[in-house]
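quick one before i forget lol
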Amino acid sequence: MLNLNHKSLDVWKKGMDIVVEIYKLTRLFPKEELFILTSQLRRAAVSIPSNVAEGFARISEPETKRFLDIARASLVEIDTQIDVSLSLKYLREDQITNLSEIANHEFAMLTNLIKKYSK
């Protein structure tokens, strides 16, 4: 694969960690959720590091910021979908501890980067 700079960024690495966590957790979901909640969560998770990568491949700062905004929005989407999963009892609070820690760190990093590119 390509040896690109974004792969050394902590924000990209944490995004990849979120993908792994989401895939682990969604394996616990009922099979009837495969094409609904499982698919939504996985697509949103993959969107985070994908948009970070695409943002850092852009030349202009406004374009970079736009993709970072999309990555952060995908993270917020995951937050809601995890809440739905908890409400439906597909997951328990103790099962999302690691994801919560990674997601909070990722949200902070994305927010700081967005602020940097907003100037």
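fyi The chain has a mean pLDDT of 96.
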